[in-house]
Amino acid sequence: MSEPIEPQIKPSPRPKRFARIPMRYVLPNLVTLLGLALGLTSIRFSIEGRYELAVLAIAAAGVLDGLDGRLARALDGQSRFGAELDSLADFIDFGVAPAMLLYLWSLQEIKNAGWFACMVYVVACALRLARFNVMIDDPNKPKWMGQFFTGMPSPAGAIVVLLPIYLHLSVLQIPQNRATVPIIIAYVLLVAFLMVSRIPHFSGKEMGRVPREYFLAVMLGVMALILLLASYPAEVLVLVTLLYLGLIPLAWRRFQAYQAADERAAAAVERPSSGQT
Description:
- This protein is mostly helical.
- The chain has a single domain (23-133, 147-209, 218-256), classed as CDP-alcohol phosphotransferase transmembrane (TM) domain (Four Helix Bundle (Hemerythrin (Met), subunit A)).
- It has helices at residues 23-47, 51-75, 80-105, 111-135, 154-161, 163-169, 181-196, 215-231, 233-276, and strands spanning 148-150, 200-202.
- It has a two-stranded antiparallel ribbon.
- Helix 1 runs antiparallel to helix 2, helix 4 (111-135) runs parallel beside helix 7 and helix 6 packs antiparallel against helix 9 (233-276).
- The radius of gyration is 25 Å and the shape is globular.
- The termini are far apart.
């Protein structure tokens, strides 16, 4: 009599563990989240009427926004998740937070018109970020286009749009009252237009490396800027804003020169080919 055959029971598969994420992906996203926390804290300071601290929080978020991308590239930690998180954080830090600060500081003096200007600015920031996310993957753009942004980038827009507050907090002490609100509204709408326009702006992404012979000078300049910003924050931000606005015509001329060079090169290629036919 044969022995009964025992059924073969397959061992149950071991539960899969969570995939380990390298730190080179985690660190840039942590910097982005820290910038987001600063943007949200700026909104809180604006509600509490602590406008100078709200300005500094947005400026600090702008510094972190410039660092997280460079950190990701340096660590080879770029990811689609990080890009999406960065866009969402930028919308809060450089769209919602500056608009809330401007409205609570001054634009609520003319409620409907002031709120309209703030909404236009926030919508312009959202459109600017959406266009950037679409254009960043364009494989057909020439290499020199990496030196420019199409329209004013959102971090620069947040710093520039707060110029009236800098002027009020600086030694100039520009008055803030109902008579100046229409001028501030017009200025906010101008910045919103610059964000959604196709006017080129210098990108600054090519400034990742410093020539060895200029290293000490650059370090000295950065330290001097930090000390001045700590001592005279409003005055330094006024100068930075005016300098950035002054660079817009130079960026436009440089962009036009590159475009003209591309057109001449394309025409030079077409002439011999048309002669052969």
